[in-house]
Every structure is written in C-alpha cells, then in structure tokens.
Amino acid sequence: MQLENTAALVTGGASGLGAATAKALAERGAKVFALDLKDGIDQAPEVAGVTYVAADVTDPEQVRTAVATAAGAGVPLRTVVNCAGIGPSMRILGKKGVHDLGLYAKVVQINLIGTFNVLALASEAIAETEADENGQRGVIVNTASIAAYDGQIGQAAYSSSKGGVVGLTLPAARDLAQYGIRVCTIAPGIVETPMLATVSEEFRTSLAAGVPFPRRLALPEEYAKLALAIVDHDYLNGETIRMDGALRMAPR
Ligand SMILES: NC(=O)c1ccc[n+]([C@@H]2O[C@H](COP(=O)([O-])OP(=O)(O)OC[C@H]3O[C@@H](n4cnc5c(N)ncnc54)[C@H](O)[C@@H]3O)[C@@H](O)[C@H]2O)c1
C-alpha cells in the first residue's frame, strides 16, 4: 500500500515501538498522528511529519476525536498501528497475597480493550475513504507479545491481554475484509524500549543471552521495519508474526 499522501495513526506514538514506527511512517511520506497520553506527549521529542494527539486508548470519545483529527487531515487515513500498552507484573498468588483484580482489569482494559477500541473506531473512518486501485482502503497493525504464547511467572494479566490481541486478529481481518482493510499483529520478543527501563543491567544481559540469534535485544526500529513491511505487503492479512530472534521464554 502506498504511504505518500495518506494519513497514519500510531497509538503509544510518544515512546518506544510507537515512536519508532511514527518516525518511519513519516519518513515514508505519511502524515502521522501519534496518539498517546498527555504525560507521554509532554516528554516526547519533536519529529518531522509527526503530530501528537493526546488521548487515552480506553476512552471511546477521546479516541473518536483523535481518529477524526487523523481522518480530517486532507489525505485518506490508511494506516493504524496500535502500540499503546503497559506491562506490569504480579503473581496470581505471591508474598503480597492474591493478584489485585483492579490491576488485572487495567492491563486488559488498556492492552486489549484499548486496541479493540482504536481498531473499531479507526476502521469506521478508513471504511469511508475511497479505495485504491486494488480495492484496498487500509491496514491495521496491532501489537501483541511473545508473552501471548510463552507467558512468564508474574505475567498472567499481561499474557491474557496479549493473547486477546492475537485472538482478535483473524476475526478482525475477516470482519473488515469487505471494506478492503487488512489486520495483522506483531508479537515482539524483548525490545530495547523505555518499558524495559526499570530492568537491571544484569537482568537485561541475561535476557539477551537467552535469544538464539541475534544474541541481543531487538531494536524499536526493527519493529517499525516489520510494521512497514506489513503495510507494504498486500497479501499479509489475519496473521500474527513473531519478531523474537527465535526466543521462547522460560517460566522465569
Ligand atoms: N518493549 C518490549 O520488549 C515489548 C515486547 C513485546 C510487546 N511489547 C508491546 O509493545 C507495545 C509498546 O511497548 P513499548 O516497549 O514501546 O512501551 P513504552 O512504554 O515505551 O510505550 C508505550 C506507550 O503507550 C502509552 N500508553 C500507555 N497507556 C496508554 C493509554 N491508555 N492510552 C494511550 N497511550 C497509552 C505510553 O504513554 C507510552 O508512550 C506495548 O503494547 C507492549 O506491550 C513491548
């Protein structure tokens, strides 16, 4: 799919994977709208071709307004990349007692329901655009995690939310096929982003040592490259792609 003279919406666009993707899309000529929480945007750098839009992915009205901004940019909204997410960890039963239900609900609310909210509302706007010469109107890329498959100790909430994103991918592609909208999901392994900032250097090294090849953590730019490859490749649809250097995570 062509990116020049189109608009793109990237959630979580102020940091990490979303920021790298927003920059890469802008470099390819898209008019990029990076949706993020106000606090995230306040700390984000200025990037040529990227306009920040403050919204919470879990809030239907805020997302509707952000989508309208992207869709009203004078060029058709064609690309959506869902990167907003959080990754706290807590054991189901641990020293601090039973897993906090509010935390479980919050992770699912942001990572899964937020992704669905943006996907649904953005698809409505994309469906209203003129199709290209191949009958295509747009592509939506979601972000799961390899924790959807190999969730570690303490990742019950996170893995549940990401498993939901994997499960959403095929029915979303099927639902939206009639509008010429493709849906794919990327399941990254461990990527060097601010989400990993709290992890000690020692733990980071041990994480990298567990990756068969390349024996290092992934880079946000590698995620962006895959997101753009999905956008470019018209026959990729309804699939979740692992990007993990063959890493299969152990229980801890
Ligand atoms: N970094 C990794 O190793 C890794 C691995 C697998 C999957 N992921 C997934 O990739 C995505 C991006 O992660 P990252 O590492 O770039 O994290 P990050 O913390 O650098 O960026 C996430 C962004 O999402 C935003 N955000 C959080 N809640 C939001 C909300 N309710 N509404 C709008 N924006 C919100 C944050 O403000 C932040 O800017 C997440 O879904 C994460 O689960 C990351």
Explain this structure to me?
With 252 residues, the protein is of the alpha/beta class. The chain has one domain (7-243): Rossmann fold, CATH 3.40.50.720. It contains seven helices and nine strands. The chain has helices at 16-27, 38-42, 60-71, 101-127, 156-176, 201-209, 220-232; strands at residues 7-11, 31-36, 50-54, 77-82, 93-94, 97-98, 138-143, 181-188, 240-243. The strands form two sheets. A seven-stranded parallel beta sheet has the order 3-2-1-4-7-8-9, sandwiched between helices. It has a two-stranded antiparallel sheet with strand order 5-6. Strand 2 (31-36), helix 2 (38-42) and strand 3 (50-54) form a beta-alpha-beta unit. Helix 1 crosses helix 7, helix 3 (60-71) packs parallel to helix 4 (101-127) and helix 4 (101-127) packs parallel to helix 5 (156-176). The longest helix has 27 residues, at 101-127. The mean pLDDT is 97. Nicotinamide-adenine-dinucleotide binds next to helix 1 and helix 4. Nicotinamide-adenine-dinucleotide is lined by residues 11-12, 14-18, 36-37, 40, 56-58, 83-87, 110-111, 114, 143, 145, 188, 190-191, 193-196. It holds the Pfam family adh_short. Residues 6-189 form the Ketoreductase domain. Belongs to the short-chain dehydrogenases/reductases (SDR) family.
